[in-house]
Write a structure and sequence with these properties.
The protein has 13 helices and 19 strands. It is α/β, with parallel strands linked by helices and about 425 residues long. A 10-stranded mixed β-sheet has the order 9-7-5-2-10-1-11-14-18-19, with helices on both faces. A hairpin with a 7-residue loop joins strand 18 (about 410-415) and strand 19. The model has no long low-confidence stretch (mean pLDDT about 95). The chain binds inosinic acid.
Length: about 425
């Protein structure tokens, strides 16, 4: 039984949590393959809102194994808080498994993330300040502390002391901020380590076994394609690889085990943080989209920048992820608009137009959108139960996306609740099992 990847097709916040939640019902194992508490997946279940940061959405289904893979970075303090919050609301964390190879976000990573952003001033990336970049930097520099280090208090203490001594020099001398205090932090960390120990597992082996036994495995990406450190809009990106191929390395399975890649895109686009954004809306419609779509960050509460759908970016996401189908979320947010611009090409500095995403950053930074304007539908989608029930212009909007991005749209989001989705070819087609 092959594995299915869910990947963000834009700059994150596409509504992946909702799609994962939908498919998790029919999955045995749900895995996060990269990122950390910079992500925030919101799921509304029976009127109750769950905001998950580390833990895959599958946790809401008893009996579903949830994996935090080797490609992730984990803040012990926040993960323990997340586990406790779920337990307090009657959601068991018994089936949560944490890769020993994932890296830990330490208090100095958070301090350095904030200090670096302050230092960069106008040039800042607009990170979530959760210590993501510094934690991945230490991983690649081979000086990180891993989840498996929580299994041995002596080793953990030793690594903690060594790392903190060096990081305090950086905090004090480079960033001119107060150093962190060893004794209290080390004690706190040891307490978190004890809490996390029971969850540590060989998750690569676990997922491989599940696949061999014919179980359904869902691999859930965080952030989105355009925030990918290799393929996104560098340097305004996150420090990991959200793209679908990274699901294999992030979990520890071979790429041949993956055969479905479901991309998730909003019917418009949002971006949090700095960086170029060709279709960012000018004028009052930006605030209108933000209000209608409740576009505020789950993790930071920041206002999201809002733009019209960018098909150049979407085509790129279809390509780099090898997307086999697309989920188009939040179509209902566009219901208020008389006309809806959709970006079909970029105009570059020399006046040339391209439908391919620019390979060079300077071309992207100066690209202006070439819009085609589609008619709106000006009616709510609340009562729509199937694709035939969609107003004709809304249906045409979806067909336009399919044609232009060359991908089948197998799910359309029409509202925040988990039931508010249309699946033109059914759930099995969405999951690639039709
Ligand atoms: P970092 O991942 O906190 O280092 O932030 C780097 C960039 O990625 C910033 O522009 C963030 O706003 C953005 N980012 C990180 N996580 C998310 C997410 O889950 N949704 C949207 N943007 C994100």
């Amino acid at each position: 039984m092959p594995a299915t990847v869910i990947v963000g097709a834009q700059w994150g916040d596409e509504g992946k949590g909702k799609i994962v939640d939908l498919l998790a019902r029919h999955s045995d194992v749900v895995c996060r393959y990269q990122g950390g508490p910079n992500a925030g997946h919101t799921i509304i279940r029976d009127g109750e809102t769950f905001a998950l940061h580390h833990i895959p959405s599958g946790i809401l289904y008893p009996g579903t194994t949830c994996v935090i893979g080797a490609g992730c970075v984990v803040d012990p303090r926040l993960l323990v808080r997340e586990i406790d919050d779920l337990e307090a609301r009657g959601v068991s964390s018994r089936d949560l498994k944490l890769s020993g190879n994932a890296h830990l976000i330490m208090p100095w990573h958070v301090a350095i993330d904030s200090a670096t952003e302050r230092h960069l001033g106008r040039l800042q990336i607009g990170t979530t300040r959760r210590g993501i970049g510094p934690a991945y930097a230490d991983k690649v520099a081979r000086i990180g502390i891993r989840v498996q280090d929580v299994l041995d208090p002596k080793i953990l203490r030793q690594k903690f002391e060594t790392a903190l001594a060096e990081k305090n020099v950086i905090l004090e001398r480079v960033h001119c901020v107060e150093p962190l205090e060893l004794a209290a932090l080390a004690e706190e960390m040891e307490a978190y380590a004890a809490r996390l120990r029971p969850y540590v597992a060989d998750t690569s082996l676990l997922v491989d076994r599940a696949l061999k036994e014919g179980r359904r495995v869902l691999l859930e990406g965080a952030q989105g394609t355009l925030l990918d450190v290799d393929h996104g809009t560098y340097p305004f990106v996150t420090s990991s690889n959200p793209v679908a191929a990274a699901a294999a390395t992030g979990i520890g399975i071979g790429p041949t085990r993956i055969d479905q890649v479901i991309g998730v895109a909003k019917a418009y686009v949002t971006r949090v943080g700095e960086g170029p954004f060709p279709t960012e809306i000018e004028g009052p419609d930006q605030a209108r989209v933000r209000e209608l779509g409740a576009e505020y960050g789950t993790t930071t509460g920041r206002e999201r920048r809002c733009g019209w759908l960018d098909l150049v970016g979407l085509r790129f996401a279809v390509r780099v992820n090898g997307m086999t189908s697309l989920a188009l979320t939040k179509l209902d947010v566009l219901s208020e608009f008389e006309e809806i611009p959709v970006c079909v090409r970029y105009r570059l500095r020399d006046g040339a137009e391209t439908s391919d995403f620019p390979a060079h950053q300077s071309d992207f930074h100066s690209a202006s959108p070439v819009y085609e304007t589609l008619p709106g539908w000006r009616e709510p989608l609340d009562a729509v139960e199937d694709i035939e029930g969609l107003p004709a212009p809304a249906r045409r909007y979806v067909e336009f996306v399919e044609r232009e991005a060359e991908v089948e749209v197998n799910l359309i989001g029409t509202g925040a609740e988990r039931e508010r989705v249309l699946m033109p070819r059914g759930l099995e087609a969405l999951a690639g099992r039709a």
